[in-house]
């Protein structure tokens, strides 16, 4: 399996790293795009079966670690997707993610890479102008299954400790 | 009947031809005059939950809160005593602390001219005070104390200082507050915005008619949410609902499969209802709600979350949810609690998000027409203060108490 490693590695390895970094960056950007286009089932397919997807405020991340939610495994993601597709009552406009990958490093534990990205999400309100929906950071652990990179763990850390009223969408 | 009004009350002359205790004048959700009266008559005259002792365990620890537009500090002194005072420098008014919580190191120093106050709000020092001459009487510049008391570790303050003693004010709710919070500590807080009048959120905690329709995730998980349970008006505006979970079947799997177009196998990740479990939703007058329950009998199976709703205008509020865990619980239990306790809560949770939206829609819809002045809160016909889970005894209990605090302003036809 391709590992993302130190850039000072030998030339062929460096090329492999560059290819992996590009693939990983595409994965992170694709997750944002699928969320914005409400292609939630395809978004779900970017995660491993044993994935972990979590949301936490920066204040709580700094302190005891109280999460807004932690979805563990594909079933939990599927339940969230079902909610978004079928029974979330809130009328909402389109979101736009702007995601910037800051760092890709070998994972501390296990195979794959640890990816740190900043995000800003705007949302068009149904009858108003667009508003900032959320800003923060993704801490991802991504792995390659031999053919493609997938998200094994994602923690979305949101900067504000005050959430908007319509915050059930994918961050 | 509980909540009945005196003959001649304008609420008795409602178009719905119901006893005034069974209707709500919709202006209470829309009128700016009534909202201003609520700040003056309700939020300053009642005990307001502001925190838990576990959040301020050491000398110098403090919390800040805004109540009815008034910034307040709650701080622990060197002798261990908690005190509350206004978060405002007595010199020119700047706030003394801006963080939600922290440790002041024993004193609060104003960033503007460095006047310094101790953990009781007493003025300690004034830089270059000699320029004031002998006229500066420091004792006149202490930040006024705000009445504070605690119950079972929960910290309450009363702005006007004239509310009944806290024990008396909490009345029959004390037993349940104890059940919910005794031996527990705060794990953290999350806040979100309610685009609605604050009472709509509080009403929601006294209304268990809505879940089977509003919360479709629970409807499918619990096979219809036709749950038997209790609904009690505890008096004093407090209320209590208790109910067991229902068993789950295959409706949840079908629901998820239908919406996602994918096979869904295995037990719901949201959890299979525990047949031994029970859930309680209680409301403490006027703006505190506590959800708690127990599970399979293990010492740490119980859970508690507390929510306080504070208005910022007639049509907006901040909801703050406070998560609790057992003091000394095993690390694995604590970690699971930190990861799962809020999973259906807050505006990102698959249940509270529904309630948040319901309040928004009501706030807009309640302004539709003067010809639609009254809302019916008359579910439950048996006399007394208790009925079935889906009845509205607890709602009527709240508004009965609310009217006592709000007085004549509600009797005016012109708000």
TrEMBL record, chain A:
Q: Name one Pfam family in it.
A: Ring_hydroxyl_B
By its UniProt entry, which InterPro entries does this protein fall under?
NTF2-like_dom_sf (IPR032710), Rng_hydr_dOase-bsu (IPR000391)
A molecular-function term among this protein's GO annotations: oxidoreductase activity
- Keyword line: Oxidoreductase
Q: What family classification does the UniProt entry report for this protein? A: Belongs to the bacterial ring-hydroxylating dioxygenase beta subunit family.
Name the UniProt record assigns to this protein: Nuclear transport factor 2 family protein
Q: Which organism is it from?
A: Novosphingobium aerophilum
From TrEMBL, chain B:
Q: Where is the Rieske domain?
A: 47-157
Give the source's domain of life in one word.
Answer: Bacteria
- PROSITE patterns reported for this sequence: RIESKE (PS51296)
Transport recorded as keyword: no
InterPro entries xref list: Rieske_2Fe-2S, Rieske_2Fe-2S_sf, Ring_hydroxy_dOase_asu_C_dom, Rng_hydr_dOase-A
One Pfam entry for this protein is Ring_hydroxyl_A
Keywords, ordered alphabetically: 2Fe-2S, Iron, Iron-sulfur, Metal-binding, Oxidoreductase
Q: Which GO terms describe its molecular function?
A: 2 iron, 2 sulfur cluster binding; iron ion binding; oxidoreductase activity
Would I find Zinc among this entry's keywords? no
PANTHER family named in the record: 3-PHENYLPROPIONATE_CINNAMIC ACID DIOXYGENASE SUBUNIT ALPHA (PTHR43756:SF1), CHOLINE MONOOXYGENASE, CHLOROPLASTIC (PTHR43756)
Name used for this protein in its record: Rieske 2Fe-2S domain-containing protein
Give the species this sequence originates from: Novosphingobium aerophilum
Which lineage?
Bacteria, Pseudomonadati, Pseudomonadota, Alphaproteobacteria, Sphingomonadales
């Amino acid at each position: 399996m391709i590992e993302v490693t130190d850039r000072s590695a030998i030339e062929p390895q460096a090329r492999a790293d560059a290819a992996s970094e590009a693939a990983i960056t595409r994965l992170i950007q694709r997750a944002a795009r699928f969320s914005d286009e409400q292609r939630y089932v395809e978004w779900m397919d970017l995660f491993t079966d044993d994935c972990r997807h979590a949301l936490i405020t920066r204040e709580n991340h700094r302190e005891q670690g109280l999460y807004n939610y932690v979805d563990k495994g594909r079933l939990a993601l599927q339940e969230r997707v079902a909610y978004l597709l079928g029974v979330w009552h809130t009328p909402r406009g389109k979101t736009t993610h702007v995601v910037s990958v800051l760092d890709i490093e070998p994972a501390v534990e296990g195979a794959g890479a640890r990816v740190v990205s900043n995000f800003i999400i705007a949302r068009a309100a149904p009858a108003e102008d667009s508003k900032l929906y959320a800003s923060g950071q993704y801490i991802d652990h991504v792995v390659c299954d031999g053919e493609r990179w997938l998200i094994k763990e994602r923690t979305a850390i949101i900067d504000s400790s005050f959430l908007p009223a319509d915050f059930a969408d994918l961050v | 009947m509980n909540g009945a009004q005196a003959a001649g009350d304008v609420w008795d002359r409602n178009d719905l031809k119901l006893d005034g205790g069974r209707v709500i004048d919709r202006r209470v959700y829309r009128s700016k005059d009534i909202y201003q009266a609520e700040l003056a008559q309700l939020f300053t005259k009642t005990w307001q939950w502001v925190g838990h002792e576990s959040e301020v365990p050491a000398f110098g620890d403090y919390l800040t809160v805004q109540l009815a537009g008034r910034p307040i500090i709650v701080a622990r002194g060197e002798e261990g005593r908690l005190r509350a005072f206004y978060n405002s420098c007595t010199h020119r008014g700047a706030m003394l602390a801006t963080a939600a919580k922290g440790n002041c190191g024993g004193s609060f120093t104003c960033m503007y001219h460095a006047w310094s106050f101790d953990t009781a709000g007493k003025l300690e020092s004034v830089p270059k005070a000699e320029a004031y001459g002998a006229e500066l009487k420091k004792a006149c510049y202490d930040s006024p104390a705000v009445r504070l008391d605690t119950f079972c570790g929960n910290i309450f303050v009363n702005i006007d200082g004239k509310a009944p003693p806290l024990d008396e004010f909490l009345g029959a709710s004390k037993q349940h507050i104890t059940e919910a919070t005794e031996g527990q500590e705060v794990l953290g807080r999350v806040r979100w915005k309610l685009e609605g009048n604050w009472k709509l959120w509080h009403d929601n905690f006294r209304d268990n008619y809505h879940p089977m329709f509003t919360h479709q995730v629970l409807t499918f998980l619990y096979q219809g949410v036709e749950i038997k349970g209790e609904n009690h008006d505890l008096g004093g505006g407090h209320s209590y609902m208790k109910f067991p979970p229902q068993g789950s079947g295959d409706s949840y799997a079908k629901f998820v499969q239908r919406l996602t177009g994918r096979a869904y196998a295995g037990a719901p990740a949201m959890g299979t209802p525990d047949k031994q479990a029970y859930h309680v939703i209680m409301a403490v007058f006027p703006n505190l709600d506590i959800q708690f329950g127990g599970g399979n009998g293990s010492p740490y199976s119980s859970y508690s979350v507390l929510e306080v709703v504070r208005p910022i205008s007639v049509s907006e509020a901040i909801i703050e949810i406070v998560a609790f865990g057992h003091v000394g619980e095993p690390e694995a239990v604590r970690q699971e609690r930190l990861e799962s306790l809020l999973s259906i809560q807050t505006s990102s949770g698959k249940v509270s998000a529904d309630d948040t939206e319901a309040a928004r829609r009501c706030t807009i819809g309640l302004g539709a027409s003067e010809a639609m002045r009254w809302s019916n809160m008359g579910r439950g016909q048996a006399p007394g203060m208790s009925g079935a889970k889906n009845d509205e005894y607890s709602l009527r209990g709240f508004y009965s108490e609310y009217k006592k605090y709000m007085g004549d302003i509600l009797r005016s036809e012109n708000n």
